[in-house]
Amino acid sequence: MAEPARADEPLLKTPLHGEHVALGARMVPFAGYDMPVQYPTGILTEHNWTREHAGLFDVSHMGQAFLVAEDKSHETVAKAFEALIPADVLNLKPNQQRYSQLLADDGGILDDLMVTRVGAPGHEGWLYLVVNASMKDADYAHIQARLPAGVTLNRKDNLALMALQGPSAAAVMAEKAPEAAELAFMMSADVQIDGIWCHISRSGYTGEDGYEISCHDKDSAALWRSLLAHPEVKPIGLGARDSLRLEAGLCLYGHDIDTTTSPIEAGLIWSIQKRRREEGGFPGAERVQREIKDGAGRVRVGLKPEGRAPAREGSVIVTPDGREVGVVTSGGFGPTVNGPVAMGYVARDVSAIGTDVHLMVRGKPIPAKIAAMPFAPHRYKR
Amino acid sequence: MTTRYTKDHEYIRIEGDAGIVGITDYAQAQLGDVVFVELPSIGKTVNKGDEAAVVESVKAASEIYAPVSGEVVEVNSDLEASPGAVNEDPAGRGWFLKIRVTNPSEIEGLLTEEQYQEFVKSL
């Protein structure tokens, strides 16, 4: 059995690191942090628990920051950020959140992120950003370098972030903060839980209903313990986070999307609102608009291998007659599907759902079909 | 009945001129939930240290190396339907394959139970 590689550089710790160790988590290096990949019950149990009850995830390694307009105008900060991302920020309602991407000038994806128009009183002209852990330094430098005068970026390294995901999440949160139950998908609110200030949003990365919960790092252990004390809630590591998001058909930056992929190739056109598609005015708009009009040459698709063997990232995708047409970007075993699932990029002419392809696994072709995503139905609170 | 071990966490339980190969309890715990096992075809000849099987957990694929040289004479086809047996009973129902040992002296070079337990403690 081959030993996994170990990184030598010193690892950062989230404010919940001690909680994970005390719970008996197996810690692994991830994006420069020492993170729990699984707790003693294991990935399958954690995955299924999240689909059936509620899972609690520490995602404090992700980057949280604010963009602030000195003139306290939403229009000012929205226009500044719209110059970097293709989402409609201008028409966000207070407390509304959107998924978007920081785009390079050639339309490649520098990172994906969540942007929220802050709704708390006295915060007009504020946007709240959540970016990927591995990209946060690069993202902040990129944003900083392109901001106009009068708009500043404040990175908030003293905030923790956790996610509570699963069909029981709403009932659990309702016991802690009644207003959480009524929150619509992709809307946020400031609430108190056990006297702790929290910014919560109805969102997540599992395909389930749930919340992401930001709080001050000094309060995070108390909040973590309070949520875990509920019998419906168990801690979930990065292993199940990955299998849950894969079944939900959600992209992982650096794997399914990166600087070589455009949002249209990645099937993220839904995250570019109509006004932005028409007006452009974001980096790479020319490519994005051309791909919307003419279609992209390759597209991200779901892949359902026949049999039980998982096809992992890097598996080459070929047609049954052996023509190479793409590559798997994420793949593994889907516990809810109870079988292997994958996603990857293929040439447009073989991207129709139901098309037969072969995935090359250890030199052998595994028959697979192009499949609709998500593999496990989304159960968001609409 | 003798069981010997490798530093890659395979075991081989000698039964006459053949040996049953699997992974140790330590290995299954490190791997996590096993979801698929790729077994070799019967009749395949392997040299000591060759890839003999592949075990897939939710997270990753890992190679299983032949602890000794020989011919694969039997495989545990029950693992197709229940790969979780590798986690539940690695020394029993979770076995992978049976090798007819061509060079018995190779067995002597493997770790004894005691030596393997010492090795695991040192990790």
From TrEMBL, chain A:
<dbReference type="GO" id="GO:0008483">
    <property type="term" value="F:transaminase activity"/>
</dbReference>
<dbReference type="InterPro" id="IPR029043">
    <property type="entry name" value="GcvT/YgfZ_C"/>
</dbReference>
<dbReference type="Pfam" id="PF08669">
    <property type="entry name" value="GCV_T_C"/>
</dbReference>
<comment type="similarity">
    <text>Belongs to the GcvT family.</text>
</comment>
<dbReference type="GO" id="GO:0005960">
    <property type="term" value="C:glycine cleavage complex"/>
</dbReference>
<feature type="binding site">
    <location>
        <position position="212"/>
    </location>
    <ligand>
        <name>substrate</name>
    </ligand>
</feature>
<dbReference type="InterPro" id="IPR006223">
    <property type="entry name" value="GcvT"/>
</dbReference>
<dbReference type="InterPro" id="IPR013977">
    <property type="entry name" value="GcvT_C"/>
</dbReference>
<keyword id="KW-0032">Aminotransferase</keyword>
<keyword id="KW-0808">Transferase</keyword>
<dbReference type="GO" id="GO:0008168">
    <property type="term" value="F:methyltransferase activity"/>
</dbReference>
<dbReference type="GO" id="GO:0032259">
    <property type="term" value="P:methylation"/>
</dbReference>
<feature type="domain" description="Aminomethyltransferase C-terminal">
    <location>
        <begin position="298"/>
        <end position="375"/>
    </location>
</feature>
<dbReference type="InterPro" id="IPR027266">
    <property type="entry name" value="TrmE/GcvT-like"/>
</dbReference>
<feature type="domain" description="GCVT N-terminal">
    <location>
        <begin position="16"/>
        <end position="274"/>
    </location>
</feature>
<dbReference type="InterPro" id="IPR028896">
    <property type="entry name" value="GcvT/YgfZ/DmdA"/>
</dbReference>
<keyword id="KW-0489">Methyltransferase</keyword>
<dbReference type="Pfam" id="PF01571">
    <property type="entry name" value="GCV_T"/>
</dbReference>
<protein>
    <recommendedName>
        <fullName>aminomethyltransferase</fullName>
        <ecNumber>2.1.2.10</ecNumber>
    </recommendedName>
</protein>
<dbReference type="GO" id="GO:0006546">
    <property type="term" value="P:glycine catabolic process"/>
</dbReference>
<dbReference type="InterPro" id="IPR006222">
    <property type="entry name" value="GCVT_N"/>
</dbReference>
<dbReference type="GO" id="GO:0004047">
    <property type="term" value="F:aminomethyltransferase activity"/>
</dbReference>
UniProtKB/TrEMBL annotation, chain B:
<dbReference type="InterPro" id="IPR011053">
    <property type="entry name" value="Single_hybrid_motif"/>
</dbReference>
<dbReference type="GO" id="GO:0019464">
    <property type="term" value="P:glycine decarboxylation via glycine cleavage system"/>
</dbReference>
<dbReference type="GO" id="GO:0005960">
    <property type="term" value="C:glycine cleavage complex"/>
</dbReference>
<protein>
    <recommendedName>
        <fullName>Glycine cleavage system H protein</fullName>
    </recommendedName>
</protein>
<dbReference type="InterPro" id="IPR033753">
    <property type="entry name" value="GCV_H/Fam206"/>
</dbReference>
<dbReference type="InterPro" id="IPR003016">
    <property type="entry name" value="2-oxoA_DH_lipoyl-BS"/>
</dbReference>
<dbReference type="GO" id="GO:0009249">
    <property type="term" value="P:protein lipoylation"/>
</dbReference>
<comment type="function">
    <text>The glycine cleavage system catalyzes the degradation of glycine. The H protein shuttles the methylamine group of glycine from the P protein to the T protein.</text>
</comment>
<keyword id="KW-0450">Lipoyl</keyword>
<dbReference type="InterPro" id="IPR017453">
    <property type="entry name" value="GCV_H_sub"/>
</dbReference>
<comment type="similarity">
    <text>Belongs to the GcvH family.</text>
</comment>
<comment type="subunit">
    <text>The glycine cleavage system is composed of four proteins: P, T, L and H.</text>
</comment>
<feature type="domain" description="Lipoyl-binding">
    <location>
        <begin position="18"/>
        <end position="100"/>
    </location>
</feature>
<feature type="modified residue" description="N6-lipoyllysine">
    <location>
        <position position="59"/>
    </location>
</feature>
<dbReference type="GO" id="GO:0005829">
    <property type="term" value="C:cytosol"/>
</dbReference>
<dbReference type="InterPro" id="IPR002930">
    <property type="entry name" value="GCV_H"/>
</dbReference>
<dbReference type="Pfam" id="PF01597">
    <property type="entry name" value="GCV_H"/>
</dbReference>
<dbReference type="InterPro" id="IPR000089">
    <property type="entry name" value="Biotin_lipoyl"/>
</dbReference>
